[in-house]
Fold this protein.
Amino acid sequence: MRNLLFTFFFMFAVSYIKPENAPSGLLVELLSHPEMSVITDKTPEFGWIVNSGIPGDFQTAYQIVVDSSPTISDADKEVIWNSGKILSDKSINVEFKGKTLLPHKSYWWKVRTWGKTEKPSSWSEIQRFNTSGFNENKKWPGESKWVEILNDEGDKFWSFENRHPIRYHDVSPEKQVIRKNGVQFYDFTRSAFSYLTMNITWNPVGEITDSLKIAVNIGEKAVGDSIDQNPGGGIIFRTYPFVLKKGTHDYELKLPRFKPHYPHSLVMPLQMPEVIPFRYFELVPGDQKPTVNRITQKALYYTFNETASDFSCSDERLNSVFNLCKYSTIANTFNGDYANSERERMMYEADCYIQQMCHYAIDREFAIGRYSLEFLIYHATWPTEWISHSVFMAWADYLHTGNTESIKAYYDDLRAKTMMVLETEKGLISTLTGLQTKEFLESIHLNRDQIRDIVDWPSYQGLPPGGETDNYEFRTYNTVVNAFYYHSLVLMAKIAEATGNEKDVDFFELKADKVKERFNSNFLNSDKGIYIDGIGSKHSSLQANMFPLAFGLVPEKHKKSVVEYIKSKGMVCSVYAANYLLEALYDAGEAQYAFDLMTSDSDRSWLNMIRTGSTMTTEAWDLKYMPDYMGWSHAWSASPAHIIPRKLMGIEPAEPGFGKIVIKPQPGTLKEAKVKLPTIRGDILVNFIQEYGEWFDLSVSIPVNTTAKVYVPRISDNNVLKVDGEIVSALEIGSWMMIDNVPSGTHLFEIKNYKQ
């Protein structure tokens, strides 16, 4: 059985090697389909996936040709750019160095590479990209305008600058029921931001001759074979008037345009039919008997490769959770950005950071995350900790792309978003000491009079005080706020290094060290070994302990007590904070408890979302935790989509742009699992199967032009480790055995407990 699984895995990996080793996965300005957009950079950057049938191969050189015609000749000296053979292993973020690109033009490019054999690969497929007007005025630096484009056939379509377009996808119902009262009920399997098209035949019954005004219903929740008309909160149920005409006709359910209610709410382009999230449809024809010949849910979401990622394991609960979160990530891109929920359609930094991380884990897509990041830099929202998330998003962008354009362009803005100016003589920050000046608010681009600490999702009317904050005791100096402050300083030091701001590297590292010392001297109850909520507080919440653990603030000697306290609390946090709870647990080696939380069937769980009937992750764990307006379409609660591949399967970049990879699975007692993670350099495949405590087999497939640092969990003190069938020695690090510089290709790691 073990050999069969790994044979399948190897064949799966090999099937992704391109014929004749031509480069694949071409990118222009991080766009995988630049022909569907226009770029605003006069010197765009190119990228590709290096392919080779030779294990351990790497790129030694490349050649790029760009021209204004799809019939590119690499021998033509009059092309826009022929790089010639460039000796370099660089395969991402390669800057254009040809003749000046003209505005409103289309160009075509291709690339080939050299590897160990010093023979050139075949040329890649030819890819088209389009330029914008370049010098058009923008309301803010990263603004992405709605533009009209011609495709290769000369047909017009609408898209965005520097982003892929949003598209409608046809979904047919899986179920139709005609109830005794004549109401026709349809189930489209999953909720989606969508509208409806229909083809209906109606032959009038009785005195009605030409037209008939009826009602149609749409909704997200069902009761039996009918739509729940009182679903509660912000769960969708809507009734619309509808006019039938005699005979057979095509119809479109035209929905009212969304009206913004919040400062930065976003609306869909007027050129596209409006959408609303729904799964179910009802036609209510009274005593008439129309025949629905065809009915289609027109589901709207961002350009997405559904086969780019995959995960499955021996626990069906976790499979269900991953699939829920993966779909939620994509379904909530209906606006071409990360503006979530039908109620708000507004981007918030914390929401977008989580969705950004999820999106990286399920598709080789970076443009929508970058746009959302840059939008939020200039459209900040009110929670204190959300401001820090702009720094998190910027670092995540660089970590996954290796591209410095954004962190260079917005460096000063990111520096301001550390909120250093709120630091007092205590060496900590506070929003309540009179330091929120007009200049500060302008520096973080906040268009309101102040920011306010949030800690976690706040309480609601009719609920006990504390809500989703575990009765957090807000003080002038709050533990959670300063944990975010510390982490933003740590990341800002890394951003400074990546952008060549050498003086700032030392500055931020020193400041982070000082904040860490002040943090622990003020917030850590050393007698109990746990953190209090703030200076002067006697209360210790889950949040006050899990955020310091997630951000590396906990001294080694207190980690055990902090972890035990966190585990004693359960999931007494919101769906947002669960992202950091899971990260903290995996980073602390508590994989089994993290797994148990992800597969829990309590009312604070992803399985509860599925059980209640939602097909997208919800705004809160359950309606009872947000009874007034909880929605069923929110990606900020989809964190398992990235936690599973990053933490459970253990795949993370060891350096920006995945030039080196860490593979460190933490399966707990999970029997077996496999994942495909798309990265800017190509797919990473990881598969394990184990007999817990007896043996552990790990197979990995590493892209060409990368190496990996692979960690295999130790079984006992009597381990024997084999790599590709050969016994090897490895560096023992705690409960791990580590093998460094594992080359590209497919490798099998086997560890077994040889009992005395």
Q: What stands out?
A: The domain at 167-302 is CATH 2.60.120.260 (Jelly Rolls). Residues 502-523 form the longest helix (22 residues).
